[in-house]
Structures are given as structure tokens and as C-alpha cells.
What we know:
The chain has helices spanning 3-8, 32-42, 64-72, 75-78, 93-104, 115-126, 144-157, 174-177, 180-186, 198-212, 220-233, 237-253, 261-281, 285-300, 328-341, 349-361, and strands spanning 54-58, 80-86, 130-136, 162-169, 189-193, 326-327, 365-368, 373-376. It has 377 residues and is an alpha/beta fold. It is built from 16 helices and 8 strands. The strands form 2 sheets. The protein has a 5-stranded parallel β-sheet with strand order 2-3-4-1-5, with helices on both faces. Strands 6-8-7 form a 3-stranded antiparallel β-sheet. The model is unreliable at 305-321 (pLDDT under 50). The protein binds adenosine-5'-diphosphate (ADP) and magnesium ion.
Amino acid sequence: MRVEEILSGPSIFRDRNVLSPHFIPDTLLHRDREIESIVRILAPSSKRMKPKSIFIYGKTGTGKTSTVKHIMKFSDQLCAIFAYVNCRIYNSKYKVLQKVGKTFIGELDKTGFGLSHIYERLVAFAAGKQIIIILDEIDMVKDVDDLLYMLGRSNDEIIDGGITIIGISNSLSFKERLDARSKSSLYEDEMVFAPYSASQIHDILKERSKIGFEPDVVQESALNLIAAISAQTSGDARYALRLLIRAGEVADSKRLKTVTDREVETARMNVEDDVIIEAVSTLPEHQQILLLGLATLTTGGSSYAKLGGGGEGAGAANVDGIEPFFMSGELYEQYAKTCNALGRQKRSARWYREYLTDLEMLGLISMVETSTGIRGR
Ligand SMILES: Nc1ncnc2c1ncn2[C@@H]1O[C@H](COP(=O)(O)OP(=O)(O)O)[C@@H](O)[C@H]1O
Ligand SMILES: [Mg+2]
């Protein structure tokens, strides 16, 4: 197909942007209860009193970011001013403070100001105001205890005003990593965002399809299928939207007028590849090397036999569709070899264990503790 043809060809999309995971819809479905709770917690600011801090936890794609961005629209009614910080990008105390500083004080946009200068300007600016700082993906901040301590302490210095934190994280274990003091200052109130059910995802997709696609393009059964797949795997609206947009692309590339179950099935495979590619490409180098080692074993076969006999699929045998698995020591040897071949210094066995745990948490491998066999996906 020629470029001109692709560009000028008919499309079933009306507006692709609204299907992107970065798009914040005007109406948030099925989050009324959460919105109400958060507004209630923040309500004291409308009476010039400092609200309690809130920690929001929930798996990815449960609408945490969309919900707080929605709440930012009520800043007038709340008599509060908001600063939104994506801690994936601003991942240190200094970067967060700089981002907050320049949100309110234009002059701080220039780089080179010291931490204490920014802090003092912020404290002065906050006088007589209720400021709400949203720290999205707060677990990404390296020196998060210092940051929370500093922001907490600022409240003793601000005259007739205050700084309130809303922390958001996908990680439940984040809490355990905090100092007792930061914990008590961040967790004055807590909220959990539950994964969406299939019918909730269906409604979200339906709303979005109306503005993202031409009328009657996406078949009801296709929506139901995406909703069922997404609810079953994660309850993640972002994944569901990604699947929808990919299904639309599949239909477009085949010049179809509708999106049916078949396009969803095709898209599902693409999306799974996307998710894995994204996960692997952002891993630290040694975890990538470890995965490469595991892939080499998986394609090349194991030289070990499974100890103790028993189960089918022992060693690297891929019997009857059972995935191969490998002994931990064998994989470490392969990892060391791969490091060598790439001219990298191998890390110790202790690190290796940590990498395995991280990879398992990301769903890239699974480990069978009893036999210390490791299975690649
Ligand atoms: N309740 C909802 N109604 C409409 N769209 C939603 C809803 N929840 C999530 N989304 C959409 O799903 C995607 C991911 O949501 P997001 O708020 O970023 O989740 P999280 O921050 O919990 O990972 C976004 O595109 C958002 O527009
Ligand atoms: Mg988010």
C-alpha cells in the first residue's frame, strides 16, 4: 500500500486522540463514590482549613490519575490551588520541589535555583492559601522520606495557609518502605481504587467509542469481548482502551467498516506483545541480560535434568505443551556466560536472586520455589 493511499484512505476512527490512554474524559464513569470521598476529605480547604493528606492506592488503569485530574477542576469551589506532579518524570525531592515551584511562581521556571531558595519562595507563596500537591506515582521518588518530611515541616512555617499532599501509587508495598514519620504524615486518610468489573469497562469503552469512532462501527459483541478479557486479566481500563484502539487499527488496515470479535482477537495478540516489549525495554541492563540468558536456554535446551525426577517436562523438555523450566544454578551460569559475551561484569548471586524476584513481579517469568526451577514466559 502506498503512503498516499494510507493517509487518504477512509477510516473508521472519528478522533483517535480520545482513545489514547493520556486522554482525560469529561465524564468519569463508576468513580462517583471515589470522587465524593476525596472531595469530602478536601472540603475543609473551602473554610480555609488544611485538609488531611490522602494516600490513594490501586492497580494500574483503575482511574486514579483521571480521578484526581477531574477533582482539580473544582479548585475554585474548594478554594484551593493544585500542583500536579508526575513522579515518574520528577523523581527526586529536588525535581518535585522545582516542578511545584514553577507551577506557582513563573520565575522559578529557570533552572539553577537551589533547593532552599525554592522552598522559601514556596513557603512565602503559600501564606494565606491552601495548596494541594498531587504526587502521582509517588513510589518513583528516590528520596521520598526527605520530600515528605520537608513538605510536612513547611506547614509549621506557612502563615495562615497549608500544604496538603495527595499521594498516588500502584504499589501496595510502598507503605512499608516509608519511615514511620513520613507514613503518618502521608497516610492521614487512605483510599483504594478497585479494579473495574467487565460491565464497568464495557460502559467506559462504550462512552469512549461514541467520540472516538464513527457511528455504529464498534460492534456490541466486540466491546463485550474486550471488557471480558480486560476484567479477567486486570480490570485495567488503560489496557481495555489500548485493545480497542488496536482493534480499530486492525479493521482499518483491512479496510473493514466495523470492528468485530475477530479484530479484537487479532489486536489482543499485538497488545500482549506491546506490553511485554514495553516491560522488557525499560528494564535495567542486568535484568535484560538475565532474560536474554533465559531465552537462550529456552530455545537452546537445558543441559541439566530435573533433580528428583517426578513431573513431566523435566529439564528443558517441552513435553505435551508444558513450558520448559530450568534450575536456578543453570540459569545463573547462562547469565554469567551472556554477561561475558556482552563484555559486562556479572553481578553476584545475591543480586541475581533479586533480579529474579523483580522479573517475576513483572510477570515475565514464573518461579517454582520447591524445585527452584524457573520458567520463562
Ligand atoms: N472511570 C473512567 N471513566 C472513563 N475513562 C476512564 C475511567 N477510568 C480510567 N479511564 C481511562 O483509562 C485510562 C487509564 O486511567 P488512569 O486514570 O490513567 O488510571 P491509573 O492512574 O489508575 O493507572 C485513561 O485513558 C482514562 O481515560
Ligand atoms: Mg496513573
